[in-house]
Amino acid sequence: MKLDNTTLLKNKCYVDGEWVSGHEGKTFDVTNPYDQSKIIAVADFDAQDTDKAILAAEKAQKEWKKTTAGERSKILRKWFDLMIEHKEELGKILTLEQGKPLPEAIGEIVYGASFVEWFAEEAKRTYGDVIPGHQADKRIVTIKQPVGVVVAITPWNFPNAMITRKVGPALAAGCAIVVKPAKYTPLSALALGVLAEQAGVPKGVFNVITSSRTSEIGKALTESSIVRKLSFTGSTAVGKQLIKACADTVKKVSMELGGNAPFIVFEDADVDKAVEGAIASKYRNAGQTCVCSNRFFVHARVYDEFTSKLKIAVSQLKVGNGMDEGVQIGPLIDQEAVNFVQNIVNDATEKGALIDLGGEVSKENKQLYMPTILSNVQKNMDVYTEEIFGPVIPIFRFETEEEVVEMANDTQYGLAAYFYGRDYQLVWRVAEALEYGMVGINTGMISTTVAPFGGIKESGFGKEGSKYGIDEYLEMKYMCFG
Ligand SMILES: NC(=O)c1ccc[n+]([C@@H]2O[C@H](COP(=O)([O-])OP(=O)(O)OC[C@H]3O[C@@H](n4cnc5c(N)ncnc54)[C@H](O)[C@@H]3O)[C@@H](O)[C@H]2O)c1
Ligand SMILES: O=C[C@H](O)CS(=O)(=O)O
Fold it and tell me: Which ipTM score applies to this complex?
C-alpha cells in the first residue's frame, strides 16, 4: 500500500534532532500483521546507541527546562495541529504496522493528539503554593520543577496514543525524553518524530530509538543514572521487572499495566445499551486493548435476552484486512498471540465451556481470530484469570450483587471495570465496591484525555491524562525563607 506522504515513513532513529542508524548498521524488519509482508527495515539500536540518546536528552533538557510554559505550550500546540493535519497518513502507517482497522487507527491518532493539545494547556498550570509560615520570620513557598530526563517504553497495541500520553506531559513539564516503542510498531513513533521536528521541538528534547534487542535496551534505559523517570506501558510481568531495575537508581516510575476487566449486566439494566457497550468495550483493536472487557457477568433474569442479542451483534462484525472498507476486526499482532487466544479457548472448552460463536481462526487468514462467545464458563478456566487480549467473550451467569462483586474483584488486576444498572443506590454501592482504577457505568467507553487514566493493584500506578498527568513529570520543591 502506497503512502501519499512518504516523509512520515522513517526507518532511522531520531536522536538529537538527527535521523541516525545504530553504530553497527544493523536493522530489523517491520511487517504487516495481516499478511506478514515486509513494510521496511528499521535501525536496530544497541546499548551504546541508547546511551548516546540519553546523553542527547540530558544536554537538551538543560535548555528546555529554562523555556517558559508559554513557549513550550506553543510548540506542543503546533505539534498537535500537525498530527491532526496528517491524521490519515499517520493512521495508514499505524494500520500497516499494527493491523487495526483504518478508521480505528485514525481515531487513535486523534485521541493521541488530544493528549498533546491537553498538555499544551496544562503546561501553564503547574502551580505551587504560598504557605503561612510556622514562625514569624519564616515564609514558605512550594514550586514544581521538571523531574529531568525521562525514558518511555511503550506497547504495540496503541503505537501512537501510548507515546503522546507520555511525551505530551513530559515536554509540557520541561523534561526531555527518549522513547523506545515496541519492535512491532516503531513507524508510528518515528512519524511523530518527523512532526515534532516540524513543530519546532528542539533537538534532543524528543528522541525515538528503535530496536529488536528489547532487554538490552531496557537495561541501558533503567541503569542510567542520568535518567530520572521511567514511564512504562505494557504487561504486568514486564512492568514488575522494570520497577525492580529502576530501584538501584531510585527512578520515579509510572506503570500502566495489564487488565482483567469485568463487564456486569444487572437485572435492571437496559439490555440493548449493555449489548452496545459490550461490543464497544470488547472489540476495540480485536480485543487487544488493556481496558477491554475480559469477563462478562450477566444476571440470570436477563441472561437469555442479553446473550441472544449479543450473539446477533457479534455475528455481524466484519473480520479482515484493516485497510479494507468496513472491516471492524483486524488481525492479532502475531502468531504467538493467535496461539495464546486459541489455547485459552481450548482450556475453557476442555473444562466444559460451550462455544456459542467462533472459537477458531478465520479460514481465509490464520492471523484473523473469529469473534467468539463462550457460555457455561467457570472460575477454574483461564478466561477467568488471564488477560485474554483477543476477541473472546466468556459469559458467567450470576444471581446476587454480592457474588458478582466478589467475582469481579477476584483478580490481581485493577485497571478498568464496567457495569450496567439503573437503580441509583445499586450503582453507587457497586461503583464504590469495585477494586479498579476506572469504572464505566452504563458505558463501555471510558478513555479520554480529560480523565485520570490508570490502574491499581497489579495494573500499575500513576495517572495519565487529566489535570493529574503532568505531575508524573514534576518534582515539588519546598522553600523556607528565613
Ligand atoms: N494500562 C495501560 O494503559 C495499557 C495500555 C496498553 C497496553 N497495556 C498492556 O500491555 C500489554 C500488551 O502490550 P505488549 O505486548 O507490548 O506488552 P509487553 O510488556 O510485552 O511490551 C511492552 C513494551 O515493553 C518492552 N519490553 C518487553 N520486555 C521487556 C524487558 N524485559 N525489558 C525492557 N522492555 C521490555 C517491549 O519491547 C514493549 O516496548 C497488555 O498486558 C496490555 O494490557 C496496558
Ligand atoms: O490498551 C489500552 C490503552 O490505554 C488504550 S485506551 O487508552 O484505552 O484507548
Answer: 0.96
